[in-house]
Structure formats: structure tokens, C-alpha cells
């Protein structure tokens, strides 16, 4: 036995989940690469800011190399000179701004010579004054260069402070540069990578979703076509689905259906021939017995001079001829069934008439017939054929009923089916006869022809239903037998007549 595998839908969902996981991992790697690239940019800017700070220090040292004494607080002239020192130092460092800071007076000089705006920038950036003051204080206190970063969503601010040695007391140099992390080649690559990921994941999701939807619809259509009943019970012809893989399966099923129909036709032909053979054997057997009795009685009558024996022989011959006539009539009914002519039928009245017709025979057998239940609606039936089927079933039930037994007749609607039942209180049907009960010439009575139930089955089939041996009702006493006509319900206008019930005949 092959192992049970997950469905195609489960496989596709698993593939989609794996695709999402792969996209998430790729997005994580892209983010990490971008972060590392941004970190490299920040490190390069920090190195450039440190070089610019040292450049200011070197220029300041050269500027104050001939001075004697010290300056506590620079005046405006000195500040202008110091600004020139800063401009000269930062001219070769694009994107770096900076200045000289004193512990007592604050900013002594500021310049941004590579500023790309309209005109020179001379105003100290107000938003970063606290950071500049803190970095310069730390550099003065530690007597060594100090660097700091301030990271925001779109940029990283790098500030460098370094102490100055010279005539100005408590002087430090500072530089500042910005790294715009939402710009540049790395950021463009990140956006392009995320855009590609989004497009591929969305496209794959749409493609898989469409595939799942198409497969679901096509398979549901195939299920509907396969579930549709055909006139002869063959496989229905399946229409192409438009999907190449499914169409190969459709072609295989259609080919199998064609082979199955041919095999069914051959089997039906063989079954028909077998039935004809069985029927011919049964007819020969049923005819041979009366003919043998006729011949024996005729020979005895011819050999005897007693007129009474000749009379008795003629009586027996007439009885056997009548038996043969009944047999031939039943055979004609079985082999040449009349197509039913459905008309709106008062089922309750039909059941009452059938029960009344057999009251005398039932009374002679010590039994009684009662109509237990009948629908008030008027189904479309052929009343003559249904009456003939009920005649056979009632005769069987009466002949198998014990003294004092009751034969129950009912006809009820159950959903889209009409079920007409005949129930007796006899010994029931032997197990050996159940499988062949409706076959011709199968009977449990010595005087029966075995054609009555076969005729009942043909009438039921002509109405699009079936005849069968059903389970007895729950309130039945004794084993008994219940024969049922299971017919499709085709209703006409309901009648206002109340349900009828006939008491047991006394």
C-alpha cells in the first residue's frame, strides 16, 4: 500500500511559505549589508573629521608660533584671524565644518568653506551647539581628541574635538560632518533590493493564489461532472479543463469511460444471453410437467373403457392447459413490458381497491388486509401497472400469512421517493432465496411459477424505481416479510381527501 501523501494544495502552500521565508532571509541580509555599508561610511567620515581637526590644530600652532604671553579671551580681530585659520584648514575637507572653541567665551571661530548652499555659511549650527560644547569640554578635560556620534533616522552626525596648544587659554578645535544614510549608492541598492523582493514575493503569491484558485475550480468542476448520473450508469464524458496536466487526466478518464461502457455493454449482452438461457430452461421445465401429466392421463384414458376416467382426464387436461395459459401470459408480461402512462393517481383509493379485491381470498386463508397509511398527495403513476404489481405482492403475502395474520398495505412519501410497502406476518423469506428472489422461476411455493416478483421488479424499473425485500416495520410481530416499491416522487396537485384506512376483514 502506497503511503498517503499531502494534497497538492498543501504542497503549494508549503512552497509559498518557503518562498516567504527565503524573502525574509534575503531582506535581512540586505539590511545587514546596508548597515555595514553605512558603518563604513560613518567610519570614513570620522577619519576625515579627525584629520580636519588635526589640520586646524597644525594651522593654529603655526599661527601662534611667534606669540609671547597668553590670551584669556580673544577679541574681534583675533576671532577674524582664527576664522581664516579654520577656513584654510577645512578647505581641503569637503562636507566638514568646524571651528575653535574656548572654555571661557565659547565659539572663537567658525567656518564651513565647502558649504554648497547659496553663499558662505557663517552661523554656528544652533541645533548642535550643546553637542559641540560637550565634545570640546571633554577634549579639554581629557587633553586628547574626543569623537561622538548622534544617530537619527536619516543621518548620522559625527563631531570631533581636539585640544589646542598655544597662546589662547582653554582653546580646543572641533570639526563636524554629516553622513546621510538615506542617500547614496548603498541606500539605492537597498531600496532596489527591497523593491525586487516585494515584486517577486507579490508576483509569486498572486501566481500561486491564482493556481490554487484555478485548480480548486477545475477539480470542483470535474467532481461535479463525475458525480452526475448518466442514463446507463456509465462514466460521464468530461470536458477539458484548460490545464495541461489535468487535461491528460481527463483524457485518461474519458478513455477509461469508453472502455468501461464497452465492457458494460458486453457484460449486459452476456447477462441477457444467460438470462435468456435461464428463461428458456425455466420455460421448458414449467411446460414439461403439465405436458407429462396431460400425456399420462390421455394414455390412461385411451387404454381404459371407463367413460369416467376419460372425463377425469379431460378435466385434468383443461386444468393443465389453464396453468400453461397463465404461464404464457406471465411470460409475455415479463418479456414485453408496456411503457407506463403516468397520471395523477389517488394512491389511498388505489390501495383500498387492491385490498378490497383480495378480501375474499384473504378471508378464506384466515387472514385480513388493512391499509395502514396512505399519502394524501397525488403522485404521477400508471395505476394499472401499480395495481398489477400490488396484486402479485398481496397474493404472495396472503399465501404466506398464518391463520389470524394481518397483511398491511401502505404508501408514503419519504423526501423525493414514494415507498409502497406490503407486509405480512408469515415465516419470512429463507436466506437461500434472498439473493435470487426477483429472478424468473425462483419461488418458495410448490404451486408457484416464480414470475410474480419478476413482474413486480419490471414494473418498478419501468417507473424509474426498484422493488426490494425491505426490513419489517418496528411494530411487526414475528419475522414476516416486507416487500417495497421504491419509486421516484413526481407529484401533482394535492387532494383534500383525508387518509383512508380499512379495518381488518373479519
Short description:
With 506 residues, the protein is an alpha+beta fold.
Overall description:
The chain crosses the membrane at residues 190-213. The protein is of the alpha+beta class and 506 residues long. The chain folds into three domains: 8-186; 244-335, Helix Hairpins, CATH 1.10.287; 343-488, Histidine kinase-like ATPase, C-terminal domain (Heat Shock Protein 90). It contains eleven helices and twelve strands. It has helices at residues 8-63, 76-90, 129-142, 185-227, 244-303, 307-335, 347-357, 359-364, 383-400, 431-434, 452-462; strands spanning 96-102, 106-111, 146-151, 155-163, 171-180, 343-344, 368-374, 380-381, 406-414, 417-424, 466-470, 481-488. A five-stranded antiparallel β-sheet has the order 2-1-5-4-3, sandwiched between helices. A five-stranded mixed β-sheet has the order 7-9-10-12-11. β4 and β5 (171-180) form a beta hairpin. The longest helix has 60 residues, at 244-303. It starts with 7 loop residues before the first helix and ends in an 18-residue tail after the last strand.
Amino acid at each position: 500500500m502506497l503511503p498517503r501523501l499531502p494534497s497538492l494544495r498543501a504542497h503549494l502552500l508549503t512552497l509559498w511559505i518557503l518562498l516567504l521565508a527565503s524573502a525574509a532571509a534575503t531582506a535581512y541580509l540586505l539590511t545587514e549589508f546596508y548597515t555595514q555599508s553605512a558603518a563604513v561610511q560613518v567610519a570614513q567620515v570620522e577619519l576625515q573629521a579627525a584629520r580636519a581637526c588635526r589640520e586646524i590644530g597644525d594651522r593654529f600652532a603655526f599661527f601662534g608660533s611667534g606669540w609671547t604671553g597668553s590670551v584669556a579671551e580673544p577679541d574681534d580681530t583675533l576671532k577674524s584671524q582664527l576664522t581664516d585659520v579654520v577656513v584654510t584648514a577645512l578647505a581641503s575637507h569637503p562636507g566638514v565644518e568646524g571651528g575653535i572653541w574656548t572654555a571661557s567665551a565659547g565659539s572663537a571661530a567658525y567656518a564651513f568653506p565647502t558649504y554648497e548652499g547659496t553663499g558662505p555659511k557663517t552661523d554656528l549650527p544652533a541645533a548642535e551647539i550643546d553637542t559641540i560644547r560637550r565634545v570640546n569640554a571633554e577634549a579639554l578635560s581629557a587633553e586628547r581628541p574626543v569623537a561622538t556620534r548622534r544617530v537619527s533616522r536619516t543621518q548620522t552626525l559625527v563631531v570631533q574635538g581636539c585640544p589646542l596648544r598655544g597662546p589662547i587659554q582653554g582653546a580646543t578645535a572641533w570639526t563636524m560632518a554629516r553622513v546621510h544614510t538615506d542617500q547614496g549608492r548603498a541606500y539605492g541598492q537597498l531600496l532596489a533590493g527591497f523593491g525586487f523582493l516585494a515584486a517577486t514575493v507579490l508576483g509569486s503569491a498572486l501566481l500561486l493564489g491564482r493556481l490554487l484558485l484555478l485548480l480548486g475550480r477545475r477539480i470542483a468542476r470535474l467532481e461535479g461532472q463525475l458525480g452526475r448520473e448518466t442514463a446507463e450508469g456509465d462514466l460521464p464524458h468530461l470536458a477539458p479543463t484548460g490545464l495541461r496536466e489535468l487535461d491528460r487526466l481527463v483524457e485518461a478518464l474519458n478513455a477509461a469511460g469508453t472502455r468501461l461502457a464497452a465492457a458494460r455493454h458486453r457484460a449486459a449482452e452476456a447477462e441477457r444471453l444467460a438470462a435468456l438461457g435461464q428463461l428458456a430452461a425455466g420455460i421448458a421445465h414449467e411446460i414439461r410437467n403439465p405436458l407429462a401429466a396431460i400425456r399420462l392421463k390421455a394414455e390412461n384414458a385411451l387404454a381404459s373403457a371407463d367413460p369416467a376416467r376419460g372425463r377425469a382426464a379431460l378435466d385434468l387436461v383443461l386444468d393443465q392447459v389453464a396453468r400453461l395459459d397463465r404461464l404464457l401470459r406471465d411470460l409475455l408480461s415479463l418479456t414485453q413490458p408496456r411503457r407506463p402512462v403516468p397520471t395523477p393517481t389517488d394512491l389511498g383509493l388505489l390501495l383500498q381497491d387492491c385490498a378490497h379485491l383480495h378480501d375474499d381470498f384473504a378471508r378464506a386463508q384466515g387472514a385480513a388486509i388493512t391499509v395502514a397509511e396512505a399519502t394524501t398527495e397525488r403522485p404521477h403513476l400508471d395505476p394499472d401497472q401499480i395495481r398489477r404489481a400490488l396484486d402479485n405482492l398481496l397474493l404472495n403475502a396472503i399465501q404466506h400469512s398464518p391463520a389470524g395474520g394481518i397483511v398491511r398495505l401502505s404508501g408514503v412519501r419519504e423526501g423525493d421517493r414514494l415507498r409502497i410497502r406490503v407486509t405480512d406476518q408469515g415465516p419470512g423469506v429463507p436466506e437461500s432465496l434472498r439473493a435470487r428472489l426477483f429472478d424468473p422461476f425462483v419461488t418458495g411455493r410448490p404451486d408457484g411459477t416464480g414470475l410474480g416478483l419478476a413482474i413486480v421488479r419490471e414494473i418498478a424499473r419501468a417507473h424509474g424505481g426498484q422493488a426490494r425485500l425491505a426490513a419489517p416495520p418496528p411494530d411487526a410481530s414475528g419475522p414476516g416479510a416486507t416487500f417495497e416499491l421504491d419509486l421516484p416522487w413526481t407529484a401533482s396537485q394535492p387532494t383534500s381527501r383525508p387518509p383512508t384506512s380499512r379495518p381488518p376483514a373479519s
